[in-house]
Amino acid sequence: MKRNIAASFLVFGLMALSITPADAVFGLSKCEKVHKEMKSIEGKFLADYKKIRAYAVDDNGTSVLSLSKASVAIIEKLKNQDPIPKIWKLAFNNPSCFSNSQNIQVKNLSNKTITNYFDWVSWQVYSSTPKCKSLYANGKKYDQATSDLCIKSTIQKWAPVAEYRSIYSY
Q1: Whole-prediction pTM value?
Q2: Which end of the chain is less enclosed by CB atoms within 10 A, N or C?
Q3: 3-state SS of 87-135?
Q4: Do 117 and 84 touch, CB atoms closer than 8 A?
Q5: What are the residue ranges spanned by the domains of the chain?
Q6: Contact assessment for residue 125 and residue 59, using Cβ atoms and an 8 Å cutoff
Q7: What is the pLDDT of residues 7-56, one digit of tens each?
Q8: pLDDT: which is higher, 165 or 138
Q9: HSE-CB for 103 with a 13 A CA cutoff
Q10: Cβ distance 54 to 157 under 8 Å?
């Protein structure tokens, strides 16, 4: 009987030594919870980002990217929710859950917002007709009469600055 009790204590002792701090006996470990939340935040952000659509518009011989109304709404939603500080905070407060290269990327996210990656601006598209080109050449591009004659439309111009890459791509 003593031998069975001693053997069971030995087995339980070895099992206790094999559990690392990141492992959880019941439920998810701390790092698993962090990764789950991080993937949720990044997943929603990147899914919305992939829905942004822009098409090329000729602006006096230069091609600019014009956003659809739905894409402008997506960007405004992302700006209001701004996942970048949430991603930074979650990773910064749990550095042991990420690799060294991931932690370097987290440091790069410090004090950044969604507008460090992309935004949109209202943009006036000018005509490239010979008459308008002549007015532009004479320095009258921004005169009221030239603007009335030569501005074709106002669009929401896509302004990508940098591409966001997932923390898990590092």
Answers
A1: 0.70
A2: N
A3: HHHHHHCCHHHCCHHHHHHHHHHCCCCHHHCEEEEEEEEECCCHHHHHH
A4: yes
A5: 27-169
A6: yes
A7: 555 555 655 555 555 445 567 789 999 999 999 999 999 999 999 999 99
A8: 165
A9: 9
A10: no
